Amino acid sequence: MSIAEHPQSDSAAVRLTVPPDAAALDALRARVHGPVYRSGDEGAAAEAACWNVAVTHRPAVVVGATCAADVAAAVAWAVEHDLPVAAHATGHGPVHAAVGGLLISTRRMQGVAVDPVRRVARVQAGSKWAAVLAATEEHRLVPLVGSSSDVGVVGYTLGGGVGPFARRYGFAADSVVAVDLVTADGELRRLTADEEPELFWAVRGSRSNLGVVTALEIQLFPADEIHAGCVFFAGADAATVLHTYRQWAPALPEEVTTSASVLRLPPLETLPEPLRGQLVVQVTFAATGLAPERCAELLAPMQAAGRILLGHVGRMLPTELDAVHMDPVDPMPTWERGVLLRELTAGTVDALLAAAGPGVDVPLVSVQLRQLGGALARQPRVPSAVAGRDGAWGLMVIAPGVPELADVVPVVVRGVLGAAEPWRAPGGLLNFLGAVDGPDDVVAAFPAEVAQRLVAVKRRVDPRGVFTAGHALTARS
After folding, report:
1. Which residues form the FAD-binding PCMH-type domain (predicted)?
2. Whether residue 11 has pLDDT greater than 80
3. Domain check: are 309 and 407 in the same one?
4. Which tens digits make up the pLDDT trace of 293-346?
C-alpha cells in the first residue's frame, strides 16, 4: 500500500508541508503501545519494509501497532495533524512508494482464533495465511486462502481474493462475516450484514479505501479431499500447451480452479535443474470435493499436451497448498499489471504467444492466465462490492522491478496486455490491477453503479481523503 501514489488523486503528500515536531511525536508515543518512528530513525525502514523490494516506502512517521487501540489512536493523531494514513502488514501488495504521511504497520497483530461450531476464524490484521491454515487444520476446516500462505490475510481478502477454491466458493471477500475497522474519525467500528451494512458492503472489495482494518472474521469451509498441484511443460511446446488449455479449462466443473503461466525462470541453484534458467509453461490444478479417479480423468487431456519437465498433482493437505502455484517466498522486486478477459480464443493465445512466447526476448517473469467464472461470477448471499465478476479470465503480467529496466518494463508489460485488448472484458480484479496510471483506472475496475455507490460511501466516512493508499478511490472520483 502507499500513501501518495497517484498524481491525479487527492494528494496526501501535498498536505504534508511540515513534518510533525518532537512534541507531536511524543504525544503520539504516549497514546500507543507500539514503537513510533520518524523518517530516518533507526528501525523506521525495517518497519516500513515491503516484500516487493522494488517499493521503498518513505513515510514521515511509522507506527508499529500492537492492537486495535493503537490503530485508533494513530489515526486520530494523524487527522489532528492533517496527515494521510496508510497501513500494511507484509508488503506484498504495494506497487508505488508511500511518500509522507503516517504508515501504520499491523504486523505485530497476529492473533488467530477459530470457532469450529460457527465455522468462523477471527484473524487480526497482521496475520498471514500460514497462521490461519495452521489454526484451522485440526478442525478439518479451511479458509479461502490465496496462492501463497506468506501473504497477509486482510489485504488479500478485502481486495477480492482469488485462490485455489475460488470457482467453487467464490471470492475470499465474500467469505467475510465481520470487519473491525478504524475510520477517519478515529473510531473503531464493527461491520456486519446487520451492523453498518452499507459500510460492510463497501469494505469487502475496496481494500484500504475506507479505513484501517484491525481484524476480520471469515467463514471457514469443510476441508474436503483436495487434489491439487502443478505441471511444468517445456517452453518449446508452449503453443500446443496453451491451445489445449484454452479448450480444456472451460469444460471443467466448478470444483476445479486452474491457471496457465508462461514463466521465464532465473538460473538460480534453488530451482530444480529442469527448470533452472528455462522458459516453461506452468499449468495449475486445484480440485476440492472430487474423487481422485475423477481428477485423474479430468487431468489426462492436459497432461498429454506437451513434454513435462517437472510436476505433480495429487492429494494435498490445506497446509501444503503453496505447492500449487509455487510462488516465490523470498522478497523480490516486481512491476506488474493485470486486466480481465471475456474469453480465451485461439486468437487470444496466438496474440499472447507473439508478444511473450518463446519466440521473443522480453524481460518478463510471468504471463499468467487465471481461470475465473463459477462462484466468482455470482453475488454471495450478502452482496459485496468486489470487482471482476464479469471476467472469464484474469491476465496478469509480472516483470522485474529493477532500476536498470525501469524504462523498458512498463512498455513491455503494456505491450503484452495490449495484444489481448480485443478480448478484454470491462472491469478488473483489484488485487491484480498492479501499477495503474491513476484513480480513473481504479474506478474503471468496478461496474459503474458499484463505483458510484463506493464513492458515496467514501465521501461519507472519509470526506477529507485521509485514506488515499493503494488503489484509491477519492472523494472526487
Report:
1. 55-223
2. no
3. yes
4. 999 999 999 999 999 999 999 999 999 999 999 999 899 999 999 999 999 999
Residue pLDDT, tens place only, 436-450: 888 889 999 999 999
DSSP element (H, E) containing 143: none
206 and 251 part of one domain: no
Asked whether residue 218 falls in the same domain as residue 230, the answer is no
- CA 49 – CA 55 distance, rounded (Å): 8
Indicate the pairing of strand 393-400 with strand 112-115. unpaired
Cell of 213: 482494518
Mention every residue, 6+ apart, whose C-beta is less than 8 A from residue 52: 91, 92, 93, 94, 95, 331, 332, 333, 334, 401
Q: Confirm if 87 and 128 have CB atoms less than 8 A apart.
A: no
DSSP string for 196-222? SHHHHHHHHHHTTSS-EEEEEEEE-EE
Q: Which domain holds residue 85?
A: 12-105
The total number of structural domains that make up the chain? 3
Q: Do 96 and 47 share a domain, yes or no?
A: yes
Q: Are residues 292 and 252 in the same domain?
A: yes
- Taking residue 78's Cβ as centre, other Cβ atoms within 10 Å add up to 25
Q: Contact, 158 vs 213, CB < 8 A?
A: yes
Q: What is the Cα–Cα distance from 13 to 442, expressed in whole angstroms?
A: 19
> Scanning the structure block, which residue is given the C-alpha cell 490465496?
146
Is 223 in contact with 123 (CB distance < 8 Å)?
A: no
Give domain status of residue 466, yes or no.
no
Write the DSSP symbol of residue 242: H
Which strands make up the sheet holding 102-105, listed edge to edge? Answer: 36-38, 61-64, 102-105, 85-88
* Same domain (yes/no): 249, 318: yes
Helix (H) or strand (E) holding 348: helix 346-356
Looking at the domain assignment, is residue 461 inside a domain? no
Q: Same domain, yes or no, for 201 and 316? A: no
Please name which of 32, 46, 84, 94 lies closest in space to residue 212, comparing C-alpha atoms.
Answer: 84
DSSP 3-state of 271:
coil
Long-range Cβ contact pairs of 28-32 (< 8 A, separation 24 or more): 28/61, 28/63, 28/73, 28/74, 28/77, 31/73, 31/74, 31/76, 31/77, 32/63, 32/65, 32/66, 32/69, 32/70, 32/73, 32/74
Three-state DSSP at 31 gives: helix
Q: Which residues 6+ apart lie within 8 Å of 433 measured at CB? A: 337, 338, 441, 442, 445, 471
pLDDT at position 476:
55
- For residues 348 and 376, is the Cβ–Cβ distance under 8 A? no
- Looking at the fold, whether 190 and 168 belong to one and the same domain comes out as yes
